[in-house]
Amino acid sequence: MIYPWQTQAWQSVQQAKMANHLHHALLFSGEEGCGNEAFIQEVAKGLLCLKPLINGAACGECRSCQVFASDAHPDFMSIRLLEDKQSILIDQIRELNYFLGLSRSYSLRRVVVIYPADRMNINAANSLLKSLEEPAPDTHILLLTAHPAVLLPTIRSRCQRARLPLPAHADALEWLQQQVLQHPAEQLLLNTAGRPLAALELDVTDTLVQREQWLAHLTECVQGQGSMTAISAYWEKFDKSQLLDWQLDWLLSLLKQCVGGEANSEVRYLQGVLGQQGILHIYDKLLELKKLSTHPLNARLLLESMLVLWRQTG
């Protein structure tokens, strides 16, 4: 599925493919919750299709499309986080390197998708470099990340980069209002920094309540209230990357509010207390902590580091 806000990015990829200028390594970057996983899957399926449509999309009917749909395509490999793992491991990349050395079965190309690419540990990332430096013929490695700066510079420099856009608010709202929702579409978009698929997911879980509770605790820290030890203990078992992503979302909302965007009361309060420089300072520091979120560190220590950052800046 290609979402309306991805049309231009899709056309750019197809133009490069038609001109035979599509790089062997493509680094797609864009915010999570905007349908970018679906986009990269459609790119991969179109590259493997034996009878692609005139717009580059897969036909959905050829042998390649049928086995792709059954997750059994011999010329396709997907590298993702293993269950209960916080990072993509070197053994997964070694398996990828072996796969790239095999002969193609029946598609014109061999395609690999790595997502989220920023979650490769250092050994896995270094192992991938060889395949990027010495690409196999008729092969495309598609990397997708919401945080390209976390990737090794040597990986970024060996990839053709493409930015997948955050949809305009009106487009995101129009799409979201076409879905069956339990909460107002505007509220959902406000709490997900304008990301429509994240908003749809938020609507059907208790995450909205959890996000608001985490924001309330951060507000307490900025005010110099609440026990950081108690707050850390409360959130210790939650996913560290998720908590970091929520904070990064709110900081983006704070920056938008600085130029007249909408925000809820807690976000408006934080914007007034922190100021633009404080917001940027916390954002940069959280990006640094993001690099550590997949390491087997003490969860309580990482949480306290987040809270101290907010309290000191406030």
Which oligomerization state do the chains in this entry correspond to?
Answer: single chain
Helical residues, percent: 40-55%
- Placed side by side, the strands forming the largest sheet appear as 2-3-4-1-5
Number of helical runs? 14
The stretches of 5 or more residues where confidence is low (pLDDT under 50) are none
- Helix/strand/pairing class, anyone? alpha/beta
Shape: globular
H/E element order = HEHHEHEHEHEHHHHHHHH
Question: Which helices and strands occur, and which strands form pairs?
Answer:
Elements: H1 7-18, E1 25-29, H2 36-48, H3 63-69, E2 76-79, H4 90-100, E3 110-114, H5 122-133, E4 139-145, H6 153-156, E5 160-163, H7 169-177, H8 185-191, H9 196-203, H10 207-222, H11 228-235, H12 240-258, H13 265-290, H14 299-313
Parallel strand pairs: 1-4, 1-5, 2-3, 3-4
Helix pairs in contact: 4-5, 7-9, 8-9, 10-13, 10-14, 11-14, 12-13, 13-14
Write a short abstract of this structure:
The protein has 314 residues and is an alpha/beta fold. The protein contains 14 helices and 5 strands. Strands 2-3-4-1-5 form a 5-stranded parallel sheet, with helices on both faces.
Structure description:
It is a single chain. α10 packs across α13 and α12 (240-258) crosses α13. Strands 2-3-4-1-5 form a 5-stranded parallel β-sheet, with helices on both faces. 53% of the residues lie in helices and 8% in strands. The protein is α/β, with parallel strands linked by helices and 314 residues long. The protein starts with 6 loop residues before the first helix and ends with a helix.
